[in-house]
Amino acid sequence: MLTLEEIRGVPKVLLHDHLDGGVRPQTVAEIAERIGHRLPVEDPDDLGRWFADAAGSGTLVRYLETFEHTVAVMQTTEDLVRVARECVVDLAGDGVVYAEVRWAPEQHLTAGLTLTGAVDAVREGFAQGTAEAQRAGRTIVARQILTAMRHQARSLEIAELAVAYRDSGVVGFDIAGAEAGYPPTRHLDAFEYLHRENAHFTIHAGEAFGLPSIWQAIQWCGADRLGHGVRIIDDVDTSDPSAPRLGRLAAYVRDKRIPLELCPSSNVQTGAAASIAEHPVGTLADLGFRVTVNTDNRLMSQTSMSREMALLSEAFGYGLDDLRWFSVNAMKSAFLPFDERLAMIQDVVKPGYDTRSLDTL
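Structure tokens predicted for Adenosine deaminase:
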């Protein structure tokens, strides 16, 4: 089993991280006090524990309610820049070398910001965070994924925004929110537009709802990646552990190398997995799916990329070779151009593991 510090020292790639799910408790408390937003508790340490407890209720709906407080403190240019800057600094400090951070611009307009103004603010925050990390000796590339809320009707507008900014730090599009009752097919016009524009997108699917959500995301909408996708395990027959059998959908996902953006701690909190030790990541990795490891919401799960990998190392006995495999999988699946992905793999990710071995740790 690897230690947290050992894991923190190797390069990691993060594809599924929510900006409003990774705000520092201190930042939430300070901005809330300034703008007069009432929090359930005021002390930052207690607030961090409150977010984790509330998010650990076992239901996705209750989990999503915690975002009312983080979104409330991200409504101005100043506050969005701060949150975005701190996000990049925190990820770089954890050894993340590439991150795609998603957020929903439509949720940040109550104080007068426009959609473009909000995206510009996050872009500025990412630039400041990248520069601050470099001054501390850390290198990180951070990009935005713009999310539309699946229970709203602005997905085409947000998709157009993502395309407009794809040469300015935005690499993709996503839909998020409660899955039940809001299938991805409600947003076909947005996905068809993205296809016409040769743009990348991922879809939250297969977390709370199951196989129909995954099937629609892939076969109807044409998603490049599956946000979570953990419930694909429902199409894998493991009654004979020595010879698991894949259903048609699971086989298609594996054959097409469709990346799974698995978020172990978050999946346990929302009830998609019973525990880390029982998380399908072990089986899916053994079967050769394109598995990636992610944080989802660092505040709500009180986690980091290093912690997620440490939990998997403890549960499944993973060593550095396994963590490198997860990291290379993620970099292969990133929404960067191919040459940039290849350069990151060859020049940053692999060397960060090749210079270390279990014998020297």
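The first helix runs from residue 4 to 8.
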